[in-house]
Amino acid sequence: MSVERFGPVWNPGPFELGTDGPGTVVVGVDGSRTALRAASYAAGVARRQRARLIVVYVTMAPGWESMAPMAAGAVQQAAADVAAEIRDVVAHRAQELGLSTTLVVRLGDPLDALRRTADEVHADMVVVGASEGAGHRIIGSLATRLVRTGRWPVTVVP
């Protein structure tokens, strides 16, 4: 897991009883259209609420050991390239908006990675993009599975 922080240091200020809105927003990104819209929505919420934004990028780990060495290397390099591109975009947008933003890059299952991250940072809200794939009808979409977890409010952005 790698963690990088961008923008000003988050300072929640003095404790306020009955604070409205989330203090920590977690958003899952994977480069898809809906994930980018979810990231924009989450950034807007974080900016308006003066919340910290945790951006989670999860790279799936296919069976590296069963792949040919050249193919495994190419897949790993592609995942690293996507993570670097997301890191650059997050850093640039955080600076533009004056947001306290943390990028978390994890390896594994997106559902597990988002749940673990949201639990670790004590998220008040999780934002994901709506599934565009057909496979979600069989195993359920990421958003549906997050909602079933029931630990935090989940916003699904179309």
Automatic annotation (TrEMBL):
InterPro entries: Rossmann-like_a/b/a_fold (IPR014729), Universal_stress_UspA (IPR006015), UspA (IPR006016). Residues 24-158 form the UspA domain. It comes from the Bacteria. SUPFAM superfamilies: Adenine nucleotide alpha hydrolases-like. Gene3D superfamilies: HUPs. Signal peptide: none annotated. Belongs to the universal stress protein A family. This is Universal stress protein UspA. It comes from Pseudofrankia asymbiotica.
